[in-house]
């Protein structure tokens, strides 16, 4: 995914920040969201 695809037209990110790290976005894997920095995972 290109970097520009996660941002809205107003410049805000279309992803959630990691609740542990706070400075990274959660990657969307369809059935879960995952932080690549600390390993935090939210299952849907």
UniProtKB/TrEMBL annotation:
Output the GO biological process annotations, alphabetical, semicolon-separated. Answer: translation
- Name the coenzymes or cofactors required: Zn(2+)
A GO term from the CC aspect:
ribosome
Q: Which UniProt keywords apply?
A: Metal-binding, Ribonucleoprotein, Ribosomal protein, Zinc, Zinc-finger
Q: Name the Gene Ontology molecular function terms of this record.
A: structural constituent of ribosome; zinc ion binding
Ranges for domain Small ribosomal subunit protein eS31 come to: 3-41
Zinc finger spans (C4-type) are 18-38
- Pfam annotation, one family: Ribosomal_S27
Q: Which residues bind Zn(2+)?
A: 18, 21, 35, 38
Family, per entry: Belongs to the eukaryotic ribosomal protein eS31 family.
| Subunit-structure text | Part of the 30S ribosomal subunit.
Q: What NCBIfam families does the annotation carry? A: PRK00432.1 (NF001669)
**Name of protein:** Small ribosomal subunit protein eS31
- Which organism's genome codes for this protein? Halostagnicola larsenii XH-48
């Amino acid at each position: 995914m290109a970097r520009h695809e996660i941002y809205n037209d107003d410049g805000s990110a279309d992803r959630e920040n990691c609740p542990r790290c706070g400075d990274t976005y959660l990657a969307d894997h369809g059935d879960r969201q995952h932080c690549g920095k600390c390993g935090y995972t939210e299952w849907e």
